[in-house]
Amino acid sequence: MPELKLMKGNEAIAEAAIRAGADGYFGYPITPQSEILEYLMVEDAHKRTGMVILQAESELAAINMVYGAACTGKKIMTSSSSPGISLMQEGISYIAGAELPCLIVNVVRGGPGLGTIQPSQADYFQSVKGGGHGDYRLIVLAPASVQEMSDFVPLGFDLAFKYRIPVLILSDGVIGQMMEKVDLFDQVPRATEFDQSWVLSGKTHDRPKNTITSLDLEALDMEKHNHHLQAKYKLIEQNEVRYEEILCDDAEFIFIAYGASARICQKATQLARDKGLKVGLFRPITLFPFPKKEIFARSEKLKAILSVEMSAGQMIEDIQLATKFRVKSEHFGRYGGVIHSPSEVLEAMENLIKSCDNGNK
Amino acid sequence: MPELKLMKGNEAIAEAAIRAGADGYFGYPITPQSEILEYLMVEDAHKRTGMVILQAESELAAINMVYGAACTGKKIMTSSSSPGISLMQEGISYIAGAELPCLIVNVVRGGPGLGTIQPSQADYFQSVKGGGHGDYRLIVLAPASVQEMSDFVPLGFDLAFKYRIPVLILSDGVIGQMMEKVDLFDQVPRATEFDQSWVLSGKTHDRPKNTITSLDLEALDMEKHNHHLQAKYKLIEQNEVRYEEILCDDAEFIFIAYGASARICQKATQLARDKGLKVGLFRPITLFPFPKKEIFARSEKLKAILSVEMSAGQMIEDIQLATKFRVKSEHFGRYGGVIHSPSEVLEAMENLIKSCDNGNK
Amino acid sequence: MTEEIIIAGFGGQGVLSMGKILAYSGMMQDMEVSWMPSYGPEMRGGTANVTVILSTDRINSPILNEFDTAIILNQQSLDKFEPLIKPGGILLYDNSGITRFPGRKDIKIYCVEATEEASRMSMVKTFNMIVLGAYLKIQPFVKLENVLKGIAKSLPPRHHHTIPMNNDAIIRGMEIVTQENK
Amino acid sequence: MTEEIIIAGFGGQGVLSMGKILAYSGMMQDMEVSWMPSYGPEMRGGTANVTVILSTDRINSPILNEFDTAIILNQQSLDKFEPLIKPGGILLYDNSGITRFPGRKDIKIYCVEATEEASRMSMVKTFNMIVLGAYLKIQPFVKLENVLKGIAKSLPPRHHHTIPMNNDAIIRGMEIVTQENK
Amino acid sequence: MAKVRGAIVVEIERCKGCEICIVNCPAHVIALEHKVNSKGYHFAFMENPDACTGCTNCAVVCPDAVITVYRKKFD
Amino acid sequence: MAKVRGAIVVEIERCKGCEICIVNCPAHVIALEHKVNSKGYHFAFMENPDACTGCTNCAVVCPDAVITVYRKKFD
Amino acid sequence: METNNIISPENLVYKKTSLLTDKILTFCPGCGHGTTHRIVMEVVDEMGIQSEVIGVAPVGCSVLAYDFMNIDMVGAAHGRAPAVATGIKRVYPEKFVFTYQGDGDLAAIGTSETIHACNRGENITIVFINNGIYGMTGGQMAPTSLEGMKTSTSPYGRNVETMGYPLKITDLIARLEGVYYVSRQAVHTAAAVRKAKKAIRIAFENQKLKKGVSFVEIVSNCNSNWKQSPVKANQWMEENMFPYYPLGDIKVGGVLV
Amino acid sequence: METNNIISPENLVYKKTSLLTDKILTFCPGCGHGTTHRIVMEVVDEMGIQSEVIGVAPVGCSVLAYDFMNIDMVGAAHGRAPAVATGIKRVYPEKFVFTYQGDGDLAAIGTSETIHACNRGENITIVFINNGIYGMTGGQMAPTSLEGMKTSTSPYGRNVETMGYPLKITDLIARLEGVYYVSRQAVHTAAAVRKAKKAIRIAFENQKLKKGVSFVEIVSNCNSNWKQSPVKANQWMEENMFPYYPLGDIKVGGVLV
Ligand SMILES: Cc1ncc(C[n+]2csc(CCOP(=O)(O)OP(=O)(O)O)c2C)c(N)n1
Ligand SMILES: Cc1ncc(C[n+]2csc(CCOP(=O)(O)OP(=O)(O)O)c2C)c(N)n1
Ligand code: SF4
Ligand code: SF4
Ligand code: SF4
Ligand code: SF4
Ligand code: SF4
Ligand code: SF4
Ligand SMILES: [Mg+2]
Ligand SMILES: [Mg+2]
User: Domain B245-359 class?
Assistant: First the structure.
């Protein structure tokens, strides 16, 4: 029996965490995502399901609590916004290195530095290339609606456990703060028993001790571990690409955009179609793995691509690596906390179309 | 009168800091770069020039001490290795946002997580794309010799002050730990008087108060600030590209490599030439700004490029963005703390050459 | 049918909750809805606004740059949003504190003296409900009964006793709204 | 002329400082030099090695995968580095604790009983200088006087009184080194 | 005996009507206006000016640095 | 009176010759061997076995958990 | 009227220091931040050290301190003000350096920087506004929130079993050797303000004498997030905060009182 | 010979616990880390709780604790062990959770995590090895290094004026309400080891009783970096470390002694 609610994106994440049977949340307040912790506290998630909620003394503590709790094989999450996520980079690198499953939510705000609390998408590089040290990746999911804020929580946990990898939900101040209808999934019982072989649960006589670490003093062993990680990332690139296409079939020009920008581009697409322009929208849902092949496959048929992000242009690099420059691609975006409007985006597309019509493709 | 010394790369950085007239160093021990702090202490830099040296309680504290001290317009630096640099990401984003000059040294070790203490180059993405949140860049210098460890300190300070930007010296365990001859430059007096208009020195009657911040609650103002930053980065891309070419003139195949890998590729280049192979080496010295145009210009004349990094392949993306895929380019590298040998690198190049000879370019 | 609304005023005037009630009401009628606030640090005295979309179709962008209707509660907001109303659209404003009045000819302009009325009724807290009533009169997309349900949904149970009072305020708002340019 | 050397043994045997002295000595003669240690956490009992290159030309890679000369001080290092000596190259080893002896035919193999000699001379601390002496005898690229200067450079002044002792040890090493396969 | 009389000036546009000055005035001089300033705040004023001794308490405690105090001795 | 006699077994290959056991043995039983183990350490042994009371001090204080202790009452 | 007679320059006994800018403070009505901003600036003014002061603003409601204080200032990252101040003071030992920090900033995320700057005896002044809550972000629990206190992240009251105890960070700091002067004050009454100002004055004077850390806690209200009127909030503060955080000097001249 | 007569299973009075693995410890000869590892495992063994224990290793010389302790364990990031332990304990309240940390780890980079885990009264055990130095990274100054102590980053001795004071973190922690038991011990003599083990036992027993934080400091040597023989180092420790860090119970049953 679906339960329809009007919720903020942040609240939807929190409610979904409870319903997905999450075992623990550790976090520190920061705008624009403090509602996640607040909602969990107001809802008394602990009473509802036994889920543990703890306000940590800092983001540094929070990510390391996640690291510890995730060692037990339980479903653990944290959330923050840009500066707080930067503080977590060492911890995230550790979690990735130790191959622990967990869910991290970044409701991005304008940077750099303290920046502004308004929405932004300028943490793309940090999220997909690894803001921490070493060769590691996260699975990065980019919700574009409050519904997806809810749906990506169980999806995120599934992927996290399937691959023993931290999953990042890369959201932004628009999606976190807006309210929309959400179709809430049913409560999933917390799986308090864990039989994963790797977890820390106390060494019993019938198994050797389990150790979780990201250290290897021997470089050759460390390289082996890295090969294993790279193989895993390859597998994820093969199996877990997700995206959505809107009016792409006959499109000569497409927007590529994720999250809030995708919603804005969707409106711009509609406005463009109203004007008779053959415009479509390709929305990557997974930013890592990035839908490289899918974009490459389409690139031959297109006249140009407009990448729209609330940033100075980050995803555009992945698009160009995907298209191998076979088709013209440009970036448009407002940033530093400014949200582009549908008509601005449309105008940028019209300019791009003009420039293609005037010159060579 | 040049002073020739045999020094570790780490020691050379420390000695160069004293001689460059640095005013302050704040850092926390971590292998393989603890010699920097130790050398400054043993040399009693404070006695030699008045330079302040402080062992901070953590990397987090260190980078924020740098932030504070840099507000005064003095020459301030810190150093660390991979996990410590990850902890500094929030601070670095702040410093970039507040446009403060300073010097940050990363002597990279194997990751992710605690990883290993052996050399690595897997922090490339973090360094050049911005491991912290928001749209910002650092100038990234990649020394390939102990001499450059010394020379890039004054260069780094010059660039940092010229553009009011944090400069990162991206080194690795090889360059940090090896000893070579260094031609030490003469002591530069500390410029204890600062007349930069923006610095914090106490508001006097003849000027308005100075404020240093990365915050703007108004998104539009924050966007303006971001435009200013982006314009500065453009300028840097125009003016500050540095690189070295070895035997590239007639080369059909080139290595592109920086830091320790460049040294190893140099040997491989020599071995290849001994075998009659037309191989050269292109060494980016600035990783941001990346020598995009220079590589693009050469790409038409080449049959293939082999990017060699001690990583799973990071710089290769910048190379492909530079060449626009006009020439085949591949990555080779050992990683996780393993250093590739000259013959391994040569073999990888020979395989690449073979694959080109067999197929199309 | 799609109605794209901006509501804007001082922080503390109940702008966000007015929007929330509208969104809830729309949801009660099976509409698609979205509510996107401007948000800021908890400091008083700033401006606040919220974009509400009610639609029978799937909503794409929650961020808009022009609106069918603007509900305006202070001068700053009037200056900012009057130009962004679509030709033929609606401007509803409370005239208290307004010194530069709206002047567009291609939109319908309504005024509701809600501030005054609220202090007349000595119910300062229902100021925003008077404005909401005025809006409902002009654009009756959502039914009053659903609005009341929306209020119930958006208020914590301990405040449910205020629903009748809110009802009165809405009705009063419906009564006192006047069109300025006919 | 280029000489590429690996020196390998237990941590604490003075491997790194032997390399350092060689590098300093080379520098005294205006050679290009490089010294690249294996480094690890400060835990005793592990193995340590250092690559030293002396050359009249600019040195490219400080990291090598084959060597002109290997100076070997324990079994593990012998096993690891014997195969990496270039054909025609040199292996110099201390035989204390060695159970699997070197066997390559295409290199020159020298032995120096430095451990024993050092304890005979009751100068355990100069063990590595005896080995160094042996090396200097075989490969006289650097002059003894420069080596002594190198020692002076690499020792802190408070240890300079040990220089004569080190000198003796080097000379002793030169005397006792023997070639095994002629 | 010399009598001391005081007076305060409230910068109306900066006053936020917090009433902290009111409870801190030992002479019960201050009250809030019914009118509001342009920010919508009722602002402080001397309701009972004759009682003011110019003790500065109100100004010292005002969070928004709104009050200027004058004092004069009358013999 | 019953006499208590002890004996210790040192796991030679794990001993690091730190001498902590030596200074902790109340009966001066232990000394370091002149020989070294395969790690190059002089290792502990009972130089004076008859004095051992089996008090376990040496084992309790050994940082490398090298010592096993036996004790027997002789009547 | 006599009043107009009195309001005349020669009778002026109190006016806003020129070391506060003319910008309208962005704090809520009745918030102690404003008062504290003012008295810090009054002390700087009275000591005549404007040209020698460098201030460090935190992240919290006082994040814009640099807009209001007419001195050279830097905005630190959340919690890091003591490290930032250390950096400045170390390279500029002759300047007066102070931080101004909230309880979330100083006692939660910045605990380590606070403790270590204090332990090193950095010759700086720390002004610490303890309002028992995260004001700026909308009223979440702070380390200093009282037992049972309702905040947005302890909506049913702070449960010390699961959320920890109200942290008397000031008392910990007073025990560090590098710390010379520690005082806890308030700014809700005129008398309290005068005392608090004296404490802040001492804290700055100590810096001139190179005494190490001087630390002044101001127990203050956050009426908005406590959801009380300013006057009520101050009452609640007296009744609830003061018993747990008693006012007065804690360490003077390097000696615990 | 009598000796062979005695060495027989029925006369066994002491042998290495099976809760230490057979890997040779990677510590330097005479280092107190080894002894402490052993007694922690002996306590776990004697309490019969191997299957209920989860340990947290730090970054420091004891980084490989998980190789030696035959229990489920995780390696934390430098300084973060108390946060990691909090995470584990919160989702697994019935397990015994402990951290094992050096002085750089616990009292420098991890200060904030330490203070807050303690203040929250996490029901865990903290074993804290204070050797006054950063052992693993080659002997840099730690917050606990003594005044005048020579380390690689204080080569002319710790100057408290510029480098801060030796930090008695344990005494600070003892003052936090969430902390139930605090004791400072050593492992350089057999008697000291027996006492230290008792303290560790109490610390684990408290966990069963859900008493909050139990904290045992072990003052230990780092002979390698102190550049002394193990035996000399222990003497130096007695003469120099113990006066500043006196052994004994500091808080028992929630009450300061
Ligand atoms: C790294 C980081 N984490 C979190 C935040 C969000 N944040 C801003 S202010 C604040 C707390 C402010 O509380 P306090 O220090 O008590 O100051 P107050 O507003 O109460 O004066 C928080 C959590 C941030 N800006 N940066
Ligand atoms: C973030 C980070 N910073 C620094 C280091 C380097 N590091 C490893 S161990 C250590 C200090 C260890 O000292 P201590 O905690 O006292 O342990 P000990 O070795 O003395 O037992 C440091 C600084 C690191 N691994 N990670
Ligand atoms: S204290 Fe100041 S702001 Fe508050 S009411 Fe009085 S004058 Fe106005
Ligand atoms: S100066 Fe004193 S008496 Fe006069 S209004 Fe202010 S507080 Fe009251
Ligand atoms: S204490 Fe242990 S390791 Fe040290 S000498 Fe004695 S037996 Fe050997
Ligand atoms: S058991 Fe006691 S008497 Fe025997 S060797 Fe050990 S310490 Fe000495
Ligand atoms: S939120 Fe609280 S602390 Fe912040 S300005 Fe308002 S009352 Fe003051
Ligand atoms: S370096 Fe020090 S702490 Fe580390 S193992 Fe050696 S003696 Fe022990
Ligand atoms: Mg606060
Ligand atoms: Mg230590």
Answer: alpha beta
The CATH label, of 3.90.1150.10, 3.20.20.150, 3.40.920.10, 3.40.250.10, for the domain at D2-179 is 3.40.920.10
Strand partners, A103: A77, A167
Minimum CA–CA partner of E41 in chain C:
C45
- Give CA separation, E22 vs E37, G52, H92, in Å: 18, 36, 54
Please say whether the structural domain G26-256 has been given the CATH code 3.40.50.970. yes
User: Average model confidence (pLDDT) for chain B?
Assistant: 96
Quote the CA–CA distance of A165 and A139 in Å, as a whole number.
Answer: 7
Rounded to the nearest angstrom, the distance between the alpha carbon of D15 and the centre of ligand 5 is 27
Identify the CA nearest to B169 among candidates B55, B10, B1, B352: B10
> In whole angstroms, what is the distance from residue D179 CA to residue D90 CA?
10
Overall average pLDDT of the B312-326 stretch: 98
The answer to whether H69 and H37 have CB atoms below 8 angstroms apart is yes
Q: How far is A191 from chain G (nearest CA, A)?
A: 22
Q: What is the pLDDT of residue B46?
A: 97
Using an 8 Å Cβ cutoff, are G216 and G199 in contact?
yes
Cβ pair C89, C107 in contact under 8 A? yes
DSSP 3-state of H188: coil
As a whole number, mean pLDDT of residues D130-157 equals 92
- What is the CATH classification number for the domain harbouring E70? 3.30.70.20
Does ligand 6 lie within 6 Å of residue F53's CB atom? yes
8 Å CB contact between C10 and C73:
yes
Identity (one letter) of the amino acid at A10?
A: N
pLDDT in tens, C59-101: 999 999 999 999 999 998 999 999 999 999 999 999 988 999 9
pLDDT band (50, 70, 90) for residue D42: very low
CB within 8 Å of H243: residues ≥ 6 apart: none
Residue at token pair 């931290």:
A166
CA distance F30 to F40: 19
Residue of chain B whose Cα is closest to the Cα of G56: B68
Q: Does E63 touch chain C (CB under 8 A)?
A: no
Nearest CA to ligand 2 atom 7: B30
For C161-167, the CB contacts below 8 A with 24+ separation are: C162/C125, C165/C123, C165/C126, C166/C126, C166/C129
| D43 in contact with B, Cβ within 8 Å | no
- Closest residue by CA, ligand 6 atom 8: F25
Does residue A119 contact residue A174 with C-beta atoms inside 8 Å?
yes
Is G202 exposed, middle or buried, given 0-12, 13-18 or 19+ CB atoms closer than 10 A? buried
Going from the Cα of E30 to the center of ligand 3, the distance in angstroms, rounded, reads 10
D155 touches chain B (CB under 8 A): no
Pick out chain G residues at pLDDT < 70: 1
Residues of chain A with CATH 3.40.50.970: 3-202+227-239
Can you list the residues of chain A whose pLDDT is less than 70? 1-2, 192-195, 359-361
- Whether H169 shows a pLDDT value over 80: the answer reads yes
pLDDT at position C10 over 50: yes
Does domain B3-202+227-239 fall into CATH 3.10.20.10?
Answer: no
Q: Which residues of C touch E40 (CB under 8 A)?
A: 10, 97
G125/G192 Cα distance (integer angstroms): 20
Which atom number of ligand 8 is nearest to the Cα of residue H233? 7
Instruction: Answer whether F56 sits within 8 Å of H190, measured CB to CB.
Output: yes
Ligand 5 atom 5, closest CA: F17
pLDDT the model gives residue D43:
45
- A137/B312 Cα distance (integer angstroms): 11
| Distance of alpha carbon B305 from alpha carbon C39, whole angstroms | 50
| Count of domains observed in chain F | 1
Determine, for residues G116 and H111 on separate chains, whether the beta-carbon distance falls below 8 Å: yes
